[in-house]
Amino acid sequence: MPESKRALIIKIGAIGDAIMALPLARELKRKGFTVTWVAGTEITPVLGLVPEIDEIIRVNQHSLFGNIFSAAFEIVRTWFKLLRTWPDEIFVLHGDYRYSFLVPIWFPRSRLSFVRAKTRRHHTFEYARLAFLESEDNELKFDPYSLNSTQPRLPRTVCLFPGGARNALRDDPLRRWPVDSYVELTKHLIEAGFKVTISGGPSDHWIEPSFTSLKNKVEWAVGQMKLPETITFLQTQSLAVTHDTGPIHLASMAECPTVSIFGPTLAATVAPLRFQHLAVELDPKLPCQPCYDGKNYGICTNNLCLKELSPHTIFKKITAYFQTT
Ligand code: SF4
Q: Does residue 212 have a pLDDT over 80?
């Protein structure tokens, strides 16, 4: 039997970006590649659920973006971990050229890179099409990546993620729908008879004081589930609600419908593909939207693009969705 070709993917984080890139691993596997993925510690548990990835090489992103010595150490350490690998294709799924340093200097020079949404196409498409560069772009269609589940969805269950928009390297508060709006939305949902769970990661405990009056009326799961457990939980939920942050992509992997709330970023490029019709943005948009260029935001002190989206607007979107299912 001939040896399979090898593909090396460099995608360190963040959670949502890595999940949107999973169709590339799936397409490479379909084409007969053995897939090695160089990943940050944060996303490794999620990638471990994906059978199309044969090997995960973990890097410490804190070291990588620390001082010059820790970065050099982490890069050389990664090179050593890749000693047994000789890739036929290399994919550096970051716009920032510095991630290319993780590719050992003795590897082939040709590599394919992710160029951030100049065209405003969905990132899933931008990643996955790299496996088909010889094809006409417009003929390609990619399903988002999801995990099989046999779990039944519990009726009228809604999971909210009011925190997030923060990873190991940066905090993006301008992406967050105000926590007070989540509190108001929770009240509407409880009154309408929904079973509400408030979830989030270990760095989201700051939202707790805002929900004090509702703690005995909701399931409180902030900081209580690791990422794979969150996916399993979302496989049982009727709906997830959050802004542009990792959990909308965890929900997408779980095939859990999402109402996703967008302000400074563009829903068309990142909202879960399967549930894009449920993405909510101001209509009409503000002249400054979207202000995120892939790295930085516009100078902003009031975040009106999200503050102006009322809890009632989101609640109406949710009830309309449940009336159609
Ligand atoms: S500048 Fe405009 S788009 Fe950007 S965060 Fe502020 S209100 Fe939103």
A: yes
